[in-house]
């Protein structure tokens, strides 16, 4: 069933690109205007839930039996969390998003003047808004699903699929048609969320190759890139999580840190420090107001339009990605306590996001405001390479740093494909946390094929159409996530208060009516 849905949307995306783009965009905009408040309240609730779980007695509960211990070391675990959750997105938007907010701010008073020049005062808000979209809220969404599935899978013995978190509410019906529908939505969001992100990554790599080597970024180059990178991803899939995804994630984390340090040391350091701390202060000062903000156009037309275009879009996008990232986070977090999970998935990635946007976004703001960098006039995928060109580097050093950026994007591409194929295979294989390598290889190839077909035959508009369609799935999944949290709350309430909750090795110990498919 999931395959049929995927094939149907690929065909629609190619044959009816413009009508699908118009319909998906119109639906997304209608949801943003009419039901954006649901996204706002839901994401804020997930953040509150994450903090509650961290500070409450439930934080001591392990995602597994009491005697279980983490499968992966802390550094490797964090590397997999970060690279899967938003690594490729940070590279793509690290320079671009603050530039967008600088030229089209949330606050009407910061709008560029008649000459089109942006206000310097808008830079702090631009940085703060980037932090807002890439820090606590997206990871809180992932935590809501990741904790739920890690708890029900590794502590209660249920399959690693979204339907398991609904078991306390629906019983065995959670694994009937309601659960199947939830899984189809999860597969849909995962495949097309990945396809659009991988497509954007391909465009950025193509732009980098054109910028560095003068090779035109065209469909042929995009096709070669997708085939080569998918082939490398396939080898990583066959190597397994420990030898494949884990190693690549750790390598890429260090490469990304090296790239960030180079840009910081060669960039406007005092400005970077100033705009990062200023933006962080403004973000924290406005965390509660912005978290609950759904302004009416009757009160503030600029803020209302900006919120619908940016924040509401992001909340729907992160929610649509929750099955993919949340399931993967649960899969690699066996043996960790809920408190460890929340701290690792909420605070550690936020630190990296703040540093990344501070260095890349701050440098971009500086060169655009004071050095005539012209970043706003460039395509989004070209801005990071233009930033490197503006740094005080020699020609050879500039080429090497640009190549490093291309490598970082490519490895993020590979790790995203790896983790995505693992998640989709688990979803389509009854929630088995250790699916067969051959099936994972099939989905890795399928993701590359979907990206190839959409980008080469349908172009950027086809990717935009399916991105908008995937974001629309965030609406029903926001409701599903709220019910999952309800199911988790019911199950946690039954945990004994005495120190050291009961060790549960079999699902029938506390959930007697459920038997996994094919089980005894």
From TrEMBL:
<feature type="transmembrane region" description="Helical">
    <location>
        <begin position="466"/>
        <end position="489"/>
    </location>
</feature>
<dbReference type="InterPro" id="IPR000060">
    <property type="entry name" value="BCCT_transptr"/>
</dbReference>
<keyword id="KW-1133">Transmembrane helix</keyword>
<feature type="transmembrane region" description="Helical">
    <location>
        <begin position="75"/>
        <end position="95"/>
    </location>
</feature>
<protein>
    <submittedName>
        <fullName>BCCT family transporter</fullName>
    </submittedName>
</protein>
<dbReference type="Pfam" id="PF02028">
    <property type="entry name" value="BCCT"/>
</dbReference>
<feature type="transmembrane region" description="Helical">
    <location>
        <begin position="441"/>
        <end position="460"/>
    </location>
</feature>
<feature type="transmembrane region" description="Helical">
    <location>
        <begin position="175"/>
        <end position="200"/>
    </location>
</feature>
<keyword id="KW-0812">Transmembrane</keyword>
<feature type="transmembrane region" description="Helical">
    <location>
        <begin position="136"/>
        <end position="154"/>
    </location>
</feature>
<comment type="similarity">
    <text>Belongs to the BCCT transporter (TC 2.A.15) family.</text>
</comment>
<feature type="transmembrane region" description="Helical">
    <location>
        <begin position="33"/>
        <end position="55"/>
    </location>
</feature>
<feature type="region of interest" description="Disordered">
    <location>
        <begin position="500"/>
        <end position="520"/>
    </location>
</feature>
<feature type="transmembrane region" description="Helical">
    <location>
        <begin position="312"/>
        <end position="330"/>
    </location>
</feature>
<keyword id="KW-0472">Membrane</keyword>
<feature type="transmembrane region" description="Helical">
    <location>
        <begin position="387"/>
        <end position="414"/>
    </location>
</feature>
<feature type="transmembrane region" description="Helical">
    <location>
        <begin position="253"/>
        <end position="273"/>
    </location>
</feature>
<feature type="transmembrane region" description="Helical">
    <location>
        <begin position="220"/>
        <end position="241"/>
    </location>
</feature>
<keyword id="KW-0813">Transport</keyword>
<feature type="transmembrane region" description="Helical">
    <location>
        <begin position="342"/>
        <end position="367"/>
    </location>
</feature>
<keyword id="KW-1003">Cell membrane</keyword>
